[in-house]
């Protein structure tokens, strides 16, 4: 009997969480390889940042690898030197919002502990995967890694420039990807800055600029001009909804229901966050009850409103934004970008406000914070592009990621599932819905790990030189 090999492509939070669960629960004979170019695992876009202005946007007590470990990150963090040194992490209500890189440190430590005590063999390959041939993953240097199952943990493609900026992608005033190391160091102290987008990334950019000593004016704009809402302060008991109540499975029906629940909560002197939190806990079930057309309606009309209420802002970052706004150094506008023209090293932007006349904005820097271009995921990653070109995978119908079945197995162009090729993390959210918040991503990783281990336990692999390819 040969060993069983699982190859995970991508070592951000999703891929690392999957590896942790495989290490914790796997048996001897299982070999796990994580292919991730970064030096350290668990240091993806979200938790790889070292900027002290970037904080976890929910209390640490709500961050964990599994439901059984609720509160573990909070307990771990309070014992660290980082907690003692970062006096701003503890908020007025006693909850802590660590710098985001600390969660990456925590996950890396959990991985190290799991590896030290596990019979499972773990290997980290520090280069990108570029192709899958038969049952073999090939890396950029030509190394080949045979696999019985491959798991795609590739979630966040690079941001895409708005059409009005395509011709200016190389202009020195355009900061197309604020997540690049030292990207904001190009902003001078008195620069006039515009930020396209008004979500969590915009909030991080504003906090970073403030930390770097920027004193110039900042204008953030998006089509709706909505900021992420604040987290709930203090302690409250959950407020569960009655999901047995007659309810139309439509986007409009759920909007009406949520408004009713929020109004009832207000009558009970309870905050609206309790309603949204319970909806989030049941988000995957509710999403899968909607038809494809209703899912599209939600994304087209309600997603921006859901995002600003669901993905909330750390109070420390919110305080910076409120301060800069009160001082007149930060403006928020509901507008879209009509055009952009270069004027030397500056830009002349033409904005179309909602319900107003176009206006001109002269800026020294324009930062794009519209987020990863998930619709381009299958084109921007070499491995995914190869698989899509060969028809082995396809985008989900909502263009949120990769099409999968209920077992997180990829679907080819004939909608046939591949029992040896899985997706873990946000790239599967077209199927599952709520797969961007960390608790749901962690739960998904645990579920996929359980499926893979069930296969390992029930279907030992016999390999010989003439064995057929499995993909």
Automatic annotation (TrEMBL):
Limits of the FAD-dependent urate hydroxylase HpyO/Asp monooxygenase CreE-like FAD/NAD(P)-binding domain: 7-156
Pfam families given in the database record: NAD_binding_9
Transmembrane domains' residue ranges: none
PANTHER family: BLR0577 PROTEIN
Name of the featured protein: FAD/NAD(P)-binding protein
Source organism: Rouxiella sp. WC2420
Source lineage: Bacteria, Pseudomonadati, Pseudomonadota, Gammaproteobacteria, Enterobacterales
């Amino acid at each position: 009997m040969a060993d069983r090999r699982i190859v995970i492509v991508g070592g951000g939070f999703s891929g690392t969480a999957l590896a942790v669960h495989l290490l914790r629960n796997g048996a001897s004979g299982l070999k796990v390889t994580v292919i991730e170019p970064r030096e350290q695992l668990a240091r993806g876009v979200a938790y790889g940042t070292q900027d002290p202005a970037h904080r976890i946007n929910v209390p640490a007590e709500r961050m964990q690898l599994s439901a059984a470990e609720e509160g573990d990150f909070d307990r771990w963090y309070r014992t660290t030197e980082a907690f003692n040194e970062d006096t701003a992490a503890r908020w007025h209500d006693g909850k802590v919002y660590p710098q985001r890189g600390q969660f990456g440190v925590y996950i890396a430590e959990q991985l190290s502990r799991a590896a030290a005590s596990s019979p499972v063999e773990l290997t980290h390959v520090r280069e990108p995967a570029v192709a899958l041939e038969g049952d073999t993953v090939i890396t950029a240097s030509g190394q080949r890694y045979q696999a019985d199952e491959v798991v795609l943990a590739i979630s966040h493609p690079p941001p895409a420039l708005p059409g009005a900026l395509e011709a200016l992608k190389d202009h020195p005033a355009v900061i197309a990807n604020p997540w690049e190391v030292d990207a904001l160091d190009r902003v001078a102290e008195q620069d006039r800055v515009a930020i396209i987008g008004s979500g969590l990334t915009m909030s991080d950019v504003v906090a970073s600029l403030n930390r770097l000593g920027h004193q110039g004016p900042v204008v953030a704009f998006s089509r709706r001009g909505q900021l992420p809402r604040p987290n709930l302060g203090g302690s409250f008991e959950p407020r569960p909804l009655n999901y047995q109540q007659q309810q139309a499975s439509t986007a409009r029906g759920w909007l009406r229901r949520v408004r009713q629940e929020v109004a009832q909560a207000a009558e009970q002197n309870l905050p609206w966050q309790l309603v949204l939190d319970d909806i989030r806990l049941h988000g995957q079930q509710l999403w899968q009850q909607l038809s494809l057309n209703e899912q599209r309606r939600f994304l087209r009309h309600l997603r921006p409103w859901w995002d600003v209420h669901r993905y909330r802002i750390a109070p420390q970052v919110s305080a910076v934004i409120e301060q800069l706004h009160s001082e007149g150094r930060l403006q928020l506008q509901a507008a879209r970008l009509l055009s952009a023209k270069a004027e030397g090293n500056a830009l002349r932007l033409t904005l179309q406000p909602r319900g107003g006349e176009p206006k001109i904005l002269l800026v020294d820097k324009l930062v794009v914070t519209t987020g990863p271009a998930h619709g381009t995921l299958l084109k921007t990653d070499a491995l995914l592009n190869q698989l899509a070109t060969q028809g082995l995978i396809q985008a989900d119908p909502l263009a949120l990621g990769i099409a999968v079945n209920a077992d997180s197995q990829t679907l080819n162009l004939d909608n046939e599932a591949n029992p040896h090729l899985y997706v873990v993390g946000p790239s599967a959210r077209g199927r599952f819905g709520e797969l961007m918040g960390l608790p749901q991503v962690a739960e998904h990783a645990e579920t996929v790990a359980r499926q893979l281990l069930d296969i390992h336990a029930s279907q030992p692999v016999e390999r010989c030189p003439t064995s057929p390819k499995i993909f």
